[in-house]
Amino acid sequence: MRRRVFVRGLAITGAGLTLPVPLAGAATARHGSAVAAWQQVAAPAGQEAAHLLAVAAAGPGRAWAVGEQGRYGGTVGTPLALSWNGSVWSQTDLSHLTYTGGLRAVSAAPGGAARAIGTDTAGHDQLLSWDGTTWRETDFPGRGEPGTRLTGVASAADGRFWVSGRHGDRAGLLRGDGTTWRWCRPLPDEAAPTPSGVHVTPGGEMWVFGDIIARWDGAWTVVPRALGIRASVTGLLPVAHDDIWLTGFAYGVGGPPGKPPGVVLQRWDGAQWNSVKSPFTVGSLSGITADATGRPDRISGWDFWDQKRAHYLRWDGTAWISERGPEAPTAYLPEAIAPIPGTDGGYWSVGTTSSSPYPPAQLRIERFG
Fold it and tell me: Please, are residues 367 and 84 in contact by the beta-carbon 8 Å criterion?
């Protein structure tokens, strides 16, 4: 999995805030004809060691976030899910799910349908559907079978959902229209690694990313991946076949215990990956999003040298510039970012109040616009 377990003992940790702010020091940016800022939004308290791994919105009045709570060392926690009704975030009752560990991916379609991914107590990956009140398990080909994995989920403009993973011990894509699910033809290389995520472009192209980067259009096209040593991909934004953005982090060779990762920000020009200058270099980038036209817009990040504020990046057309979240008395590790449809450039950012999801880490949510 691509999710981050960072340095332990390097960041200040503490209980999560629940103030419905804007807080002093929130970053501002020109936003249409007005000035907008990143603001903290109240999040319901979870068990200690709580963190949110993914967020998705269907519009200003409907969004979902998923994660895990109660993890401690090698002891896994329990799944955590929140829903937004336009005014407040509330925790969803998941007592009917026999799960350990967390929910790790979520996506919403334009019409309001939503899907999430988790792993049950038997170690089998599960596909969940939102029924209007809670998350319910959905049947799909290969469910519960050895060699079946589900890792990421994304929605397309036509309402279909695409799930990255593995079936029959071959890497590939699962697609569904809400009632019927089927696996696409797997990647041609039988040894291809399982992708950790999936991205659907506004034009309807399907991409998988992680330890492999490939495009599906009825056949597979693989893009070479060359990130360095101990590197992970956290996000992919294909603008064109010769213009692809990639975010992540890398630990490099060796180093002392607790060594923080370095930022990975690269751009594919059709022939090779080129490193792109980031406003900060020690830490990680946790995701990249596009504007309504599919052009790059925002990146969420964790800055090792300034852990009490999220370090977002905004594309100004020629370079990525810093855009800071509000300062908090604890660290903030943003683990996911997602646009809010129906708004003028609004975003949700979710994560945890620590550099790693260990006690006493709590949930944190921020919003732009």
Answer: no
Whether 14 is covered by a domain: the verdict is no
**Structure tokens belonging to residue 263:** 């930022």
Q: State the Cα torsion 348-354-359-360 to the nearest 10°.
A: -80
For residue 118, the number of C-alpha atoms closer than 13 Å in the C-beta half-sphere is: 30
Taking the CA atoms of the chain, what radius of gyration do you get in angstroms? 19
Rounded Cα distance between 186 and 209, Å, is 14
Using DSSP, state whether 56 is helix, strand or coil.
Answer: strand
User: Considering its fold, how many domains does the chain have in total?
Assistant: 1
Q: pLDDT tens, 24-51?
A: 334 555 544 455 899 999 999 889 999 9
Where in the sequence is the domain holding 206, given as residue range(s)? 28-368
Cα end-to-end distance, the chain, whole Å: 31
pLDDT digits (tens, 9 = 90+) for 121-159: 889 999 999 999 999 999 999 999 999 999 999 999 999
CATH number, domain of 108, equals: 2.130.10.10
